[in-house]
Specification:
This protein is mainly α. It contains 5 helices and no strands. The longest helix has 47 residues. The radius of gyration is 20 Å and the shape is elongated. It starts with a helix and ends with a helix.
Length: 154
């Protein structure tokens, strides 16, 4: 479970950090796959004998991966804020694209908005990964352990 959590945390940190540089809302598309995958891998590595044990290990693996994702998202928010507030070309580029009404000219407002949105997305992603990690471990258990028990009883 710890190995699966660290694998998911590292993959999630790298992927979420790269996506958050664009927008924090882009991160919501990877978290369901990451959560289920981490839970499934936790079941594969640990091979628990009871569904309750599998559920607990998937939850722990999801928690570890979710913390990696949350740290990556907040680090990317800080990097994004530094890059945007120190860029002189960004307002001209946004006007060229036609997004001039979305520009926050005050850097304090930009920092506040960036950190608030990333915090909410990070907490949501953490909760989603933990829940889906538990679901992934139960899916592994039903697929592999339930089949081996039904084969023994017949």
């Amino acid at each position: 479970m710890i190995r699966a959590g660290f694998i998911g945390g590292i993959v999630g940190f790298i992927y979420i950090m790269s996506l958050t540089l664009l927008s924090p809302f882009c991160t919501l598309c990877i978290t369901p796959f990451l959560g289920i995958g981490v839970g499934y891998i936790a079941g594969y590595f640990d091979k628990p004998l009871k569904v309750e044990t599998s559920l607990g290990r998937g939850t722990i693996a999801g928690s570890i991966a979710g913390l990696g994702v949350a740290v990556g998202q907040m680090a990317a928010a800080v990097v994004n804020g530094i890059l945007v507030t120190n860029s002189e070309q960004l307002p001209a580029l946004m006007k060229e694209i036609g997004l001039s009404e979305f520009i926050i000219s005050n850097s304090d407002e930009y920092w506040q908005a960036t950190l608030t949105v990333n915090s909410f997305c990070g907490i949501f992603n953490l909760a989603l990964i933990v829940g889906l990690g538990a679901l992934g471990s139960v899916l592994w258990f039903q697929r592999h352990r339930a089949n081996s028990f039904s084969g023994v009883s017949s």
